[in-house]
């Protein structure tokens, strides 16, 4: 992603985050990562019902906040967050999410996404977790709590990129990547050798 989005890992929880916008449905279900009878080799998994591509023509040309950057080139974090929210039961997509955040002050003047925007656009239902270190233990803790981990990593071009984790397998993490068209989650190892940041989006269990 752009320099703007790559700076997100350096900002505190109260400051900045990816876009997410959606009104909460009447009954938003909370994924349960502790379900029994997981497939062989799968240590933990969350529902995988939503997959969006940031270059989808329905929203590819939409711009992010005040930055003027398009979702097609710089919307991986918005797209990953839209996938997480959709899987959590919120009705949204990257275009809708971006538009709602714009209306509710979900971006700062630099076009960065505000973490607290997640709560505002979901009526306080969805929560975001911020971690100072890029530790796989954080990813696993989020999966265990039903929160969708968003991980940042470097592409071969050295640009920063974000994807949503949906499974922890014996051979590594599996993700939905906003820049990859696939009917199934792909191994994170096929995209990166490690992660640079972790954020998680979910709904607290009552």
- Helix share bin: 10-25%
The largest β sheet comes out as: 7 strands, antiparallel
| Rg over alpha carbons | 15 Å
- The pLDDT mean sits at 84
Report the span from N to C terminus.
35 Å
Q: Tell me the total number of β-strands.
A: 7
Total count of helical runs of at least 4 residues: 6
The fraction of residues assigned to DSSP E strands is 15-25%
Low-confidence stretches: 1-29
Derived from helix and strand composition plus strand pairing, the structural class reads alpha+beta
Walk me through what this model shows.
It is a single chain. Helix content is 21%, strand content 19%. By secondary structure, it is of the alpha+beta class. Strands 1, 2, 3, 4, 5, 6 and 7 form a seven-stranded antiparallel sheet that branches. The longest helix is centred in the middle third of the chain and has 12 residues, at 76-87. The protein contains six helices and seven strands. A hairpin with a 5-residue loop joins strand 3 (148-154) and strand 4 (160-169).
């Amino acid at each position: 992603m752009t320099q703007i989005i790559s700076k997100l890992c350096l900002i505190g929880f109260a400051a900045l985050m990816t876009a997410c916008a959606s009104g909460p449905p009447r009954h938003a279900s909370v994924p349960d990562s502790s379900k029994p009878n997981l497939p062989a080799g799968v240590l933990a998994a969350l529902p995988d019902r939503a997959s969006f591509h940031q270059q989808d023509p329905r929203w590819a040309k939409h711009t992010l906040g005040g930055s003027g950057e398009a979702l097609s080139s710089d919307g991986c974090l918005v797209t990953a967050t839209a996938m997480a929210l959709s899987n959590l039961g919120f009705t949204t997509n990257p275009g809708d999410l971006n538009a709602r955040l714009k209306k509710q002050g979900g971006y700062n003047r630099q076009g960065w996404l505000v973490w607290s925007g997640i709560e505002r656009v979901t009526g306080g239902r969805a929560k975001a977790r911020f971690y100072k270190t890029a530790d796989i233990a954080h990813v696993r803790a989020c999966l265990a709590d039903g929160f969708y981990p968003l991980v940042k990593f470097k592409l071969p071009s050295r640009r920063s990129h974000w994807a949503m984790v949906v499974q922890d397998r014996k051979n590594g993490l599996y993700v939905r990547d906003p820049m990859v068209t696939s009917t199934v989650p792909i191994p994170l190892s096929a995209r990166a050798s490690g992660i640079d940041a972790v954020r998680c989006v979910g709904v607290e269990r009552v």
